[in-house]
């Protein structure tokens, strides 16, 4: 913080030129990212410079950012120093088409958030971006009690906290939408829309009733028996 990650006040004090502001990207943290929903207001900005900024002359057109970063040259440890971020991810993951952002370590329950605006995150988050399946449909499934149960037993737990690793996440069996389950899929998408609408108006709104409907539909989608549902519900209460 204070080097390549800046507060609104720090950004204002830099008096950046128009072209310099293009390098500033909104970065979101766990405080912003809730289950289903990301609060659009970002508290921080990141100077998003890729490996091309390893060139010492790369900042010549960005005098105010250069002056700022030059003050920290003795503490910057990036492999892409003097001006590049360490392992900057491709920006396509943070912009453009809708995607899901998920914290790798979650307190109490997994949290998968639907995002349809520019949202940069650190390596402590997964970014799921796909054209193969409706992203809101996928958001509903991933936030269900069924998938929480899957991640609890296929992944790692630290007490009651979930450590969501890549392998169990990639191995989640996602039901493909077809003519037989299209109605359920549409209902799930509509429920996610409702949750997002409610949260947009009041980020602290209680959406448990809508989430319960999603859980019931996901059980139906995966053709679970009453006994299997009881196991999942009981496990989730423990």
UniProtKB/TrEMBL annotation:
Residues 26-174 form the TaqI-like C-terminal specificity domain. SUPFAM superfamilies: DNA methylase specificity domain (SSF116734). It is an enzyme of class 2 (transferase). It comes from the Bacteria. GO terms for biological process: DNA restriction-modification system; methylation. GO terms for molecular function: DNA binding; site-specific DNA-methyltransferase (adenine-specific) activity. Keywords: DNA-binding, Methyltransferase, Restriction system, Transferase. The keyword Membrane does not apply. This is site-specific DNA-methyltransferase (adenine-specific). The lineage of its organism: Bacteria, Pseudomonadati, Campylobacterota, Epsilonproteobacteria, Campylobacterales.
């Amino acid at each position: 913080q204070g080097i390549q990650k800046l507060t609104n006040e720090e950004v204002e004090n830099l008096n950046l030129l128009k072209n310099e502001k293009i390098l500033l990207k909104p970065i979101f943290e766990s405080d912003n990212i809730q289950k289903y929903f990301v609060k659009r207001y970002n508290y921080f900005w990141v100077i998003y410079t890729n490996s091309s900024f390893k060139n010492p002359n790369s900042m010549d057109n960005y005098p105010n950012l250069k002056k700022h970063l030059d003050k920290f040259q003795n503490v910057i440890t990036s492999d892409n120093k003097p001006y590049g971020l360490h392992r900057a991810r491709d920006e396509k993951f943070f912009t453009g088409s809708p995607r899901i952002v998920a914290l790798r370590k979650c307190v109490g329950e997994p949290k998968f958030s639907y995002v349809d605006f520019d949202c940069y995150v650190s390596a402590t988050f997964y970014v799921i971006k796909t054209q193969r399946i409706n992203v809101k449909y996928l958001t509903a499934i991933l936030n269900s009690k069924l998938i929480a149960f899957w991640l609890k037993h296929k992944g790692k737990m630290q007490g009651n906290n979930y450590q969501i690793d890549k392998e169990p996440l990639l191995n989640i069996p996602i039901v493909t939408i077809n003519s037989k389950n299209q109605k359920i899929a549409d209902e799930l998408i509509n429920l996610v829309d409702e949750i997002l609408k409610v949260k947009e108006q009041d980020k602290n709104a209680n959406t448990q009733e809508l989430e319960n409907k999603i859980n019931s539909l996901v059980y139906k989608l995966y053709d679970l028996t009453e006994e299997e549902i009881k196991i999942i519900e009981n496990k989730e209460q423990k």
